[in-house]
Specification:
Oligomer: single chain
Strand content: over 45%
Number of strands: 11
Distance between the termini: 40 Å
Helix content: under 10%
Radius of gyration: 14 Å
Largest sheet: 7 strands, mixed
Shape: globular
């Protein structure tokens, strides 16, 4: 059973910073982990993705230069992994529920497609006040 648990969301002022964490447990054939966000009535939006090795990353244009995705590479046990999303210079438009996801993706271009991911966390709310 694969479980993804996010933490680190909260309320922050414009220009502030937050660090989201996603702890993944359980054996999985996933090779990519991603962060997505969603607001009520809107589609789930890609934020950033990272390969298991940590060597390949992608991020949405709207967050480039402000958000950084990384993976805890200290663990050699692929049954436990932690992925982080460091968010700086936050804007009100970054307000959303942020979800962590894991999947076995074949192509780099798939990072941005939420339908390619097999496992999802419960989400964590990020609210940026103006």
């Amino acid at each position: 059973q694969v479980q993804l648990v996010e933490s680190g969301g909260g309320l922050v002022q414009t220009g502030g910073s937050l660090r989201l964490s996603c702890f993944a447990s359980g054996r999985t054939f996933s090779n990519v982990m991603g962060w997505f966000r969603q607001n009520p009535g809107k589609e789930r939006e890609f934020v950033a993705g990272i390969s298991w090795s940590g060597g390949t990353t992608d991020s949405a244009d709207s967050v480039k230069g402000r958000f950084t995705i990384s993976r805890d590479t200290r663990s050699r046990d692929n049954a436990k992994n932690t992925v982080y999303l460091e968010m700086n210079s936050l804007k009100p438009e970054d307000t959303a529920v942020y979800y962590c996801a894991a999947g076995k993706l074949n192509y780099y271009s798939d990072y941005r497609d939420p339908t390619k991911y097999d496992y999802w966390g419960q989400g964590t709310q990020v609210t940026v006040s103006s």
